[in-house]
């Protein structure tokens, strides 16, 4: 992978000083790196946020989308290689949580060392599968689900031109998330902190708690009032939890 290729994948909105812990942020289905701009701004300069931009959206809209979680994990893993000169923590929301799990597995398998911390958000544990077919609906049905979850910027949903541009990525990501199948393997050994909403139609509290089965490290579950995008209303509390978890890795 060339430096220019890596620049397409990683968005570092607020570079942090050397030695700051790094947090890789993985977007939800249909999402983009810019979703994490407020997170980067809030955590700067204590945490170096690396927001991942998937192909097929925004400035990468002319590139083909990656069709499976497994292949996307391999590509993200490759894009992160230049950034693995220090510990990496991973945060992923919804589809990004499943992706983060697979990236963490690849890192631990290759290096023998776990990521610093895994923060899955708004997603059931990999071993808890549901039969979902939203990606097979027509455009109207797909958009109805997106609107119900309130996961896409309202400006996009209200602009026909932007919507046409975003739909292929949204459908692709829904398909990748809904057809993802966990393959049994060694457990992670990193700490895992899960965030979930108590009224999330995509994840029950029990399904979120099942993430504990996927690590031998410390586990914590944080439940917030709200639906699938509960994190929009509870960002300060979530970021305090992340900051506290990453603080021991900071170089003084």
TrEMBL record:
Coiled-coil annotation: which residues? none
Instruction: Kindly list the GO molecular function terms attached to this UniProt entry.
Output: hydrolase activity
Q: Where is the Thioesterase TesA-like domain?
A: 24-246
Tell me the first and last residues of the signal peptide. none
Determine the domain of life of the protein's source: Bacteria
Listed InterPro entries: AB_hydrolase_fold, TEII, TesA-like, Thioesterase
Q: Alphabetically list the UniProt keywords.
A: Hydrolase
- Record-annotated membrane-spanning stretches: none
Q: Which Gene3D superfamilies match?
A: alpha/beta hydrolase
Please, one GO biological process term?
Answer: lipid biosynthetic process
Pfam families linked: Thioesterase
Keyword Hydrolase (UniProt): yes
Q: What family is this?
A: Belongs to the thioesterase family.
Q: What is this protein called?
A: Orf(+17)
- Please give the organism: Micromonospora okii
């Amino acid at each position: 992978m060339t430096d220019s290729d890596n620049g397409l994948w990683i968005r570092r909105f607020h570079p942090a000083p050397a030695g700051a812990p790094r947090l890789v942020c993985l977007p939800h289905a249909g999402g983009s790196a810019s979703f994490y701009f407020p997170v980067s701004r809030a955590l700067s300069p204590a945490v170096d946020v690396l927001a991942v931009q998937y192909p097929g959206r925004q400035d990468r809209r002319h590139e083909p989308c990656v069709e499976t979680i497994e292949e996307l994990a391999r590509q993200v893993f490759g894009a992160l290689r230049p950034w693995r000169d220090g510990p990496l923590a991973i945060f992923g929301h919804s589809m990004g949580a499943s992706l983060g799990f697979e990236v963490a597995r690849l890192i631990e398998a290759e290096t023998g060392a776990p990521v610093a911390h895994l923060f899955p958000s708004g997603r059931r544990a990999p071993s808890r599968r549901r039969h979902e077919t939203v990606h097979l609906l027509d455009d109207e049905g797909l958009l109805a689900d997106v609107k119900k979850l309130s996961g896409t910027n309202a400006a996009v949903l209200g602009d026909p031109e932007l919507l046409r541009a975003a739909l292929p990525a949204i459908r692709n990501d829904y398909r990748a998330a809904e057809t993802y199948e966990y393959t049994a393997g060694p457990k992670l050994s990193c700490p895992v902190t899960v965030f979930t909403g108590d009224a999330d139609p995509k994840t029950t509290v029990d399904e979120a708690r099942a993430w504990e089965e996927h690590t031998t490290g410390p586990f914590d579950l944080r439940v917030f009032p709200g639906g699938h995008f509960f994190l929009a209303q509870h960002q300060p509390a979530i970021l305090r939890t992340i900051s506290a978890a990453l603080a021991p890795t900071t170089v003084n």
